[in-house]
Amino acid sequence: MTILENQSELLDRLEAMSPEEMLTWAHTNHGDRAGIITSFQDTGTVMVDMSRRCAPGLRVITIDTLRLHPETYELMDAIEKRYGITVERFQPDPERLQKMVAQHGEFLFFDSKPKQEFCCKIRKVEPNERALASLDVWITGLRRDQSAARKVTPRASWIDRNGRALLKLAPLADWSEEQVRQYVKKHDLPYNTLYDKGYSSIGCVICSTPTLPLEDKRAGRWRWFNHTGEGDKECGIHIGGSGI
Ligand code: SF4
Questions:
Q1: Atom 5 in ligand 1: which residue has the minimum CA distance?
Q2: Which of 30, 167, 227, 230 is in Cβ range 3.0-4.6 Å of 34 for a Cys bridge?
Q3: What CATH number has the domain bearing residue 18?
């Protein structure tokens, strides 16, 4: 059997696993080279909760853009306390951040789509790339019902990251928002209280806003681009980002 066949067979095996089996497999086979990267939206919190029972040592990582909502920082603290863990916080490079703000201002994301993507690159994508460099298995909370762009999210896939093959797992890709909500309720998990204020997707302050019931779950992201034809709702972490 060739390496390619082996890799494809592994994906088939992973696709057939339950979320708990996937998390256990990642930790058992890859130890500290596997980790959940989460922004502590409910899907991420569900995975953290599952992992504490089936794979207690699995790393929990977050990208702290330094512009998150106070409610998100409070939730991180609550998660650390509840599970007795330390969430690894990857932050923007201070020099690059300072340079960006000096050149373009703190609120450059209002100016144009390329500047928003540049801000996301400095505050999110680069710290995320640093986190990924420490991993062989990237576990994410992507779900197919989060947006049109995420409809075909596989539960297991090989991706190329700077010439290196990385296994990307989305154990809850096929869960609905309702399933996630029910899990949170049943297990009495801490959650981001911004959900109670109408948010359905939570990122940085200003750039994420509440959504209306019939809107796409990510419509509240960079809302000022919704009517410009530049409504792409990805920050570059899950696709290639642009730089200026
Ligand atoms: S979401 Fe907004 S503040 Fe956060 S990194 Fe992206 S553009 Fe910058």
A1: 120
A2: 30
A3: 3.40.50.620
